[in-house]
Amino acid sequence: MSTKKEKNSKKEDKVPIVIKNATDLQRLKLEKLMKNPEKPVVLPEPPRQKSLAAPPDFVRNVMGSSAGAGSGEFHVYRHLRRKEYARQKFIQEKSEKEKLDDEYHAKIEANKRAADEKTAKKRAKRLKKKKLAKMKGKKPKVENAAPTSSQSDSSSEDEQQSESNEDTNSQVSTHTEDATSNLDKPNSENNDK
């Protein structure tokens, strides 16, 4: 009896799974990997780059200069020609790939430089705004539009007004200190009499 139950449970486990989308496929692959987590995962190595065969040290099939090429030598000539064309094609493809890589790296470098300049400019603008706000003693305002020349003139006028207000405030504070000290003196003189 127990064997029949085990067979039935195995059959239930082997129910065909219908893959409807990429998520189901990925889930199936992950479940298969997680069934045996101790099994090592084999990662394929990247494809190796082709390289040219080393040129021969000694060329055995040298055609003589005194006689013309016979029909028996044509297959040798054809093979050498095919080999030379393959070598030239490989050199051209390699130079084209290097050129594209250089252009790509130059473009990335230019984009990075432009982004750095842009962020530096914005940082300087932020710090300048923060410094001006600190000088005014107010919180920095967020402006959506760029200031025009009339707005920049008015901002310089505002700075001049704030400086003059600070000067008058300091003068008023010194006058009030003098007045309070003068008030204290007469009271002490009245008490002495």
From TrEMBL:
<feature type="compositionally biased region" description="Polar residues">
    <location>
        <begin position="168"/>
        <end position="185"/>
    </location>
</feature>
<feature type="compositionally biased region" description="Basic residues">
    <location>
        <begin position="120"/>
        <end position="139"/>
    </location>
</feature>
<feature type="compositionally biased region" description="Basic and acidic residues">
    <location>
        <begin position="92"/>
        <end position="119"/>
    </location>
</feature>
<dbReference type="GO" id="GO:0019901">
    <property type="term" value="F:protein kinase binding"/>
</dbReference>
<dbReference type="GO" id="GO:0003725">
    <property type="term" value="F:double-stranded RNA binding"/>
</dbReference>
<dbReference type="GO" id="GO:0004860">
    <property type="term" value="F:protein kinase inhibitor activity"/>
</dbReference>
<feature type="compositionally biased region" description="Acidic residues">
    <location>
        <begin position="155"/>
        <end position="166"/>
    </location>
</feature>
<protein>
    <submittedName>
        <fullName>(diamondback moth) hypothetical protein</fullName>
    </submittedName>
</protein>
<dbReference type="Pfam" id="PF06658">
    <property type="entry name" value="DUF1168"/>
</dbReference>
<feature type="region of interest" description="Disordered">
    <location>
        <begin position="92"/>
        <end position="193"/>
    </location>
</feature>
<dbReference type="InterPro" id="IPR009548">
    <property type="entry name" value="Prkrip1"/>
</dbReference>
<dbReference type="GO" id="GO:0005730">
    <property type="term" value="C:nucleolus"/>
</dbReference>
